[in-house]
């Protein structure tokens, strides 16, 4: 049960099989711009789930769906033993790329296929490929919903009650696509995930594999800017309480804060902004924004947060509005288990794949999983670092190298080689 | 047929009748904040139309609906003669006040009721009270849709094909509420409209009646800011093309332009802003904004427009985006016929109502009508100038004084006293 023993011809055929299956996944929910739109629990997400369960059955796995729509493809070598989980997510942002999440599920499925086909000693742990529900969080907040429920960080009933902007709940949406299951899924012994980097560091350094050692710290805030409705034509400027002016000043402020730190150590953004009543001739009375600040340096993040709060007070004065800010989410720099990074490095070296330790700047389900079991997180390069964009791309050689590596890592996890890692 | 002949007790009972009917209108589409939400061709708009046609029938009018949903309540004194039209609109902005538009229709209905009940010589013209379709333009753009079609400025088929943001067309929405009529309505000989001021000038000067002599000039633009989708967490700031940053800079720029002129001679605003894909973790790729600039001085407006275009070029550089700007609507300072202002002044003086010439800063259906027939536009005060807001308010005395004045003005228009005014 070691990929190092595979012959070159097997590797080629494994790569072809992987690329064939990945192409068949990539056309599900395809957009005119050659990306995908598979938001959580939509018809396109349901189709991708069918792609997953159909292929998993073909490759010898049984499948089950848990109480919050996580889909597991299981193979039981050792009755009653816990499972090594390996996977990612099939849901996407709107007009997203084909690789984000989908690559990780497809790679996990093929690692599982290759291990299931290997005749060898019975491993210590069984194997489960997982498609986590709603990692992206664009239709239903928060993101990483499925793995948050699985790891006990979010109560299932709370997740199921979340509504999208049309008032459809997670429970209703999952029910509608036939993916509201029961139970809490298999017991995990370890976890592995592979993903595109969504940044440039691997490409810039000519490295094939990123060994993820930590996640950047993040602070996320929701803010509601309160103004007052007025007529855009007739209300004198001095009388206006323009919530959109206040919100716009907030968007500009966040970029100014990022620019005030040297060496790109801070990322800030507003991705979501909703205006009420959003009519051409009405001064807006209410604007909701979602703010996102990230850094590898928690002191930078603390300083940026202080600048944000000072700036908000100034904006309240200047725009004649009031601003309610709430922290919706925050985490410090989150390390993965060093033994997992070492295991991944040893596997990559054995396969002669260039590798380097990297941060993840984005969130992944592995960030939840590492808190309950030893976890390995791997990256392959992203061309130009493009992410959450239809033009997201990773070349086939890197994609296939990643599947090879993941297969080897999972084989070792199944043998219990990361047991006890902290 | 002169209100000046009414006895005080009649006036009191006219006022009571008006206030009773106006209250019954104000609860249609009422919001929790004691305003109304009666966007064009919604269920609430349909209910308000039923309020209008029911009362009109009770007061001796016949009603008809034209090809674009304008409702006319007709009384024919002189067979075959054209009609004096008097009215406003029953549709509203979301969470709007009870007075905007609705007061003008209710006042027109009561002016008509009082004239219809008067035994006197047969007037030269017949009378039609009108509820113009979709004056507000928030559900379906452009605003003043019904009067634009009536006056030949907008082809009916173009108006009927306009879609709201859910893809419902004007034709479908009117059909759904049973208000897609036929024909082009009665032939107009003159037009009168009364409205709340939506500004403070009457209240500040302690004046009951505004004699509207001109409309401020306006320049309206739609802009699309083009950026590129990226991951908010992982994409380095230098690589971002953040469309929301560009749009926010545009909102701030517009306010800066207004502030750069002394004495509040320029009003600027962005009331509508839509973000795509509007997900918390995606840098927006596209933002649409609607910009509105108004002034009584066309040179100020031209200077402001030049500043806007310069600012847009700077923003394109600073935010690394491209911005497409299109003028959607523009007009110069638009005078009403001076003879109409004089007629209104004479009526107000006869009724001993304090009065002053005023601009309208907002658009009204009378702006369309004055281009085809002699037109009188009247204002009553707005407390604190509050408009497009649930707290919009005009006190009962001013409201009833306005109905008295409108009755007298319409009586004179029916006698042909404004014939030939240019």
Feature tags:
2 domains, homodimer, 12 helices, alpha/beta, globular, about 425 residues, Alpha-Beta Plaits, 4-stranded antiparallel β-sheet
Q: How many individual domains of chain A?
A: 2
Using the CA coordinates, give the radius of gyration of chain A. 23 Å
Q: What amount of the residues of chain A lies in strands?
A: 15-25%
CATH architecture type of the largest domain in chain A: 3-Layer(aba) Sandwich
The coarse silhouette of chain A is globular
H and E string of chain A = HHEEEHEHHHEHEEEHEEEHEEHEHEH
Distance between the termini of chain A: 25 Å
Largest sheet of chain A: 9 strands, mixed
Task: Describe the 3D structure.
Chain A is an alpha/beta fold and 422 residues long. The first copy, chain A, has two domains: 3-216 and 333-414, 3-Layer(aba) Sandwich (Aminopeptidase); 217-331, 2-Layer Sandwich (Alpha-Beta Plaits), CATH 3.30.70. Chain A is built from twelve helices and 15 strands. The two termini of chain A are 25 Å apart. Chains A and B meet through strand 8, helix 8, strand 9, strand 10 and strand 11 of A and strand 8, helix 8, strand 9, strand 10 and strand 11 of B.
């Amino acid at each position: 049960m070691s990929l190092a023993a595979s012959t070159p011809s097997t590797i080629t055929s494994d790569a072809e099989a992987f690329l064939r299956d990945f192409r068949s996944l990539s056309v599900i929910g395809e957009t005119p711009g050659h990306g995908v739109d598979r938001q959580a629990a939509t018809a396109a997400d349901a189709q991708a789930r069918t792609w997953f369960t159909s292929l998993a059955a073909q490759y010898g796995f049984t499948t089950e769906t848990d109480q919050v729509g996580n889909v597991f493809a299981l193979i039981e070598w050792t009755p009653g033993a816990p499972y090594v989980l390996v996977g990612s997510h099939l849901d996407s942002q709107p007009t997203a790329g084909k690789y984000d999440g989908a690559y990780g599920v497809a790679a996990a499925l093929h690692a599982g296929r290759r291990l299931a086909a290997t005749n060898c000693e019975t491993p210590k742990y069984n194997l489960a490929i997982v498609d986590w529900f709603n990692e992206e969080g664009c239709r239903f907040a928060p993101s990483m919903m499925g793995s948050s429920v699985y790891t006990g960080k979010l109560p299932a009933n709370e997740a199921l009650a979340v509504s999208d902007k049309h008032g459809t709940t997670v429970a209703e949406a999952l029910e509608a696509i036939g993916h509201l299951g029961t139970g809490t899924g298999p017991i995990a012994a370890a976890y592995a995930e592979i993903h595109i980097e969504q940044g440039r560091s691997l490409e810039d350094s000519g490295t094939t594999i990123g060994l993820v050692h930590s996640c950047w710290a993040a602070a996320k805030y929701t803010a509601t800017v309160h103004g007052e409705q007025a007529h855009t034509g007739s209300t004198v400027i001095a009388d206006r309480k323009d919530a959109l002016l206040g919100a716009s000043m907030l968007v500009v402020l966040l970029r100014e804060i990022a620019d005030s730190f040297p060496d790109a150590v801070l990322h800030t953004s507003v991705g979501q902004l909703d205006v009420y009543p959003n009519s051409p001739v009405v001064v807006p009375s209410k604007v909701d924004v979602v703010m996102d600040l990230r850094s590898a340096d928690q002191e930078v993040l603390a300083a940026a947060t202080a600048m944000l709060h000072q700036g908000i007070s100034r904006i309240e004065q200047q725009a004649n509005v009031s601003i309610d800010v709430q922290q919706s989410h925050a985490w410090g720099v989150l390390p993965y288990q060093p033994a997992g990074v070492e295991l991944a490095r040893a596997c990559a070296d054995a396969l002669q794949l260039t590798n380097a330790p990297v941060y993840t700047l984005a969130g992944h389900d592995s960030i939840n999983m590492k808190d309950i079991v030893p976890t390995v997180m791997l990256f392959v390069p992203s061309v130009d670092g493009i992410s959450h964009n239809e033009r997201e791309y990773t070349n086939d050689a890197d994609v296939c190298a990643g599947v090879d590596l993941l297969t080897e890592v999972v084989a070792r996890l199944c043998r219990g080689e990361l047991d006890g890692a902290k």
